[in-house]
Amino acid sequence: MNAKQMAGYEAATYVKDGMTVGIGTGSTAHFLIEKLGQRVAEEGLDIRCVSTSIESTEYAESLGIPLLDTNDALELDICIDGVDEVDPAFNGIKGGGGALFREKVVAMSAKYNIWICDDSKLVQKIGAFGLPIEVSPFGYKHVVRKLEEAGFVPKLRMKGKDIYMTNNHNYILDTNYDNTKFCTDYKAMERFLKGMLGIVETGFFLNTTDLIISAGSEVITTIKNPNK
Ligand code: 5RP
Prior knowledge:
The chain is an alpha/beta fold. The chain is built from six helices and 16 strands. Bound molecules: ribulose-5-phosphate.
């Protein structure tokens, strides 16, 4: 079993009969969904899930996992998702898979959040790969210009020769923030970005998770967030 599979399978043990469950997106969440599908089929695990992407919806449906729309499940018992980077203060960046907006909506509706990852995602400082920022296609170049004026370096995400499009039909700007005035004040940076017309959501997930389940080649580590 590889590390992502170990983390995903371990997280599936936190899901109990009767729960409503947010299911994340990405290669680690894939293993969570796989295990939940097995448990539904083999144990008759009685759950209802809310998905964070078309990709996860299709996979969950193929495994017979019952799904709800997020608008019909305003409070979830638990949400389990992957993460791109997380620092020791539980500041996370998500959106490598482009699902950040739906992931944030679902995470915010859950009473308890778990992130699953391999150990490479645990870093001292977040931001090495750039912050994914979801923007409206209409007028996105205005956003690019305003970001650049503030010292950010946004890069439009591509998929081959085409512009990458999120499930919400928006674009993503993978954005370096090393030379902005915000340094590591992620809360202030988030406020600044969210105040900008055209920005739909950022990949900052600051102090949102309750627990991290991280796996190495052999060992699974669980880290509780002391601030939650
Ligand atoms: C998708 C995400 C994913 O959770 C994140 O990119 C981690 O993915 P993976 O488990 O494939 O490493 O935020 O938008």
